[in-house]
Amino acid sequence: MKFGIAIFPTEYAISMTELAPAVEQLGFESLWVAEHTHIPTSRQSPWPGGAELPKHYWHTMDPFLALTAAALASKTIRVATGICLLIERDPIHTAKEAASLDVISGGRFIFGIGGGWNREEMADHGTDFTKRWQLLRERTEAIKAIWTSDPAEYHGEMVDFGPMWSYPKPVQKPHPPVILGGSGPRILERVVRYADGWMPNRGAVIERIPELQRMADAAGRQPIPVTYYPKANAEEIERCARAGIERLIWYVPADGRDAALKKLDELGTLIRPYVKD
User: Fold this and answer.
1) Is 53 within 8 Å of 46 (Cβ atoms)?
2) Nearest by Cα to 248 from 192, 191, 187, 206
3) Contact call for residues 30 and 77 (beta carbons, < 8 A)
4) What residue numbers bound the domain in which 167 lies?
5) Residue 248 CB neighbour total at 10 angstroms
6) For the range 130-133, what are the long-range contacts, defined as Cβ-Cβ under 8 Å and sequence gap of 24 or more?
C-alpha cells in the first residue's frame, strides 16, 4: 500500500520546499495539493465538509507552482494535484503546465482532477455547473491528446481545436496517471471511461470497489486503482488494505509550520509498520 500527504498550500502554511523532503524522509509516496482559484464572497454553495468554510480555501496557491517547488526540493516522491479544478482551466495551458511539471520532476507527476462543488466559483470562469462533467471529460481527453500526439487535435462539443504542436511532452508514457475524484452516483462510469484511477473523498467507498472492478473488466480494462482519504488509525489502514485500496492520503494543517510538522510526525509513526526500508 502507498501513503500520501495532502495540504492546502497557503502563504502562511509550511513551505513546500520544507514539507516535500520531510514527507519523503518519512516514507510517504506522494504529496498532494488542493486547488481553488478564489472563493466568491456570496458563499451560496454549501461546503460539503460542513457549515463554516476554512479560510485556506481562498488562500490556496497555484497548484503547479507549489508542486514545482516540491519537486525541486525532493528526489523520489510523486507530486500530485488533489484535485485540479480542470473545469475552471484552459486545457491547452494546463496540458503544458502539467507536462512541464512532469519533465521538471523527472516523471513524478500525478494528475488528480474533479468536477468541483462551488457553483459561483466555476461560474466566474464561465463554467455551467450542470455541464461541468461533460466539460471535465472533454478537457481531460483534449489534454491527453496534446500529451500523446504530434500534431494533436481534439473535436468535442465543448472543446474543439485543430492540429497543433505543443511541447514539452510528459516523461511518463503514455502520459501521467489521471486520477478522477468524486463520489456521486455516476462517478464509476466516468472513471472507467476516461481516468486511470478513482479518488473518492466521502460516502460508500469500500462497498463500491467490487462494482468498479466489474465495470472495468466489462470495458476490457485492468483493475482500476483506488486512492482514498481515510481516518488516521491502524484499523482503518488494515480495512482499506483488505479492500485492495492502493493509496491512502491524509491532510496536514495549512495553518503554519509547527502544526504541519507535528501532524506529519504523527502520520509518519502511523505508517512506519507498513513502509519498507
Assistant:
1) no
2) 206
3) yes
4) 2-38+56-115+133-274
5) 25
6) 131/158, 132/87, 133/186, 133/190
Q: How far are the Cα atoms of 31, 87, 151, 178 from residue 101, in angstroms, in the given order?
A: 14, 20, 21, 14
Helix axes 209-218, 187-194, angle to 10 degrees: 40
Would you state the pLDDT for residue 51? 79
Look at residue 170 in the predicted model and tell me its pLDDT. Answer: 98
Cis ω for the linkage preceding 230 (within 30 of 0):
no
What percentage of the chain reaches a pLDDT higher than 90? 95
CB 9 within 8 A of CB 21: no
Strands, sheet with 197-199, edge to edge from the N-terminal-most edge strand: 197-199, 178-181, 109-113, 78-84, 30-33, 2-7, 247-251, 227-228
What is 46-94 written as a DSSP string? PPTT-SSPPGGGGSBPPHHHHHHHHHHT-SS-EEEEEEE-GGGS-HHHH
Mean pLDDT in residue range 99-109: 98
Is residue 104 domain-resident?
A: yes
How many domains does the chain divide into?
A: 1
The CATH number of the domain holding residue 24 is 3.20.20.30
Please tell me the distance from the alpha carbon of residue 179 to that of residue 84, in angstroms, as a whole number: 10
- pTM of the predicted structure, to 2 decimals: 0.97
- The length of the chain is 277
The 8-class DSSP code of residue 35 comes to -
The grid coordinates of residue 54 equal 476554512
Residue 201 in domain: yes
